[in-house]
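Look at one record.

>
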Amino acid sequence: MFTLSIIDERRAVVTTAALRSAVAWSRRADEPRAWREIARMTGVIMGAFGPGAGPATPSQLVAFLRRLWASCCRTRAGRRRSTA
């Protein structure tokens, strides 16, 4: 049986919460419960990171995910240029 280390488990929890938040954010106009889901996932991420280490409000989580996505896009674009 495969077991996850504490770090791998925390990474999986944060990744899942971030993805669920992103989906909820994309559906916020059509689904009134989307903000509630984002708030729940903020709590999950706060629990994984510990006090004061991660976003503390749903809007901070959304801003954090935007910055993270932008940095991932820049990194991917840089990799494409360097291999061409």
Remarks:
- The chain is about 75% helix and 0% strand.
- The mean pLDDT is 84.
- Residues 22 and 65 are 8 Å apart (CA to CA).
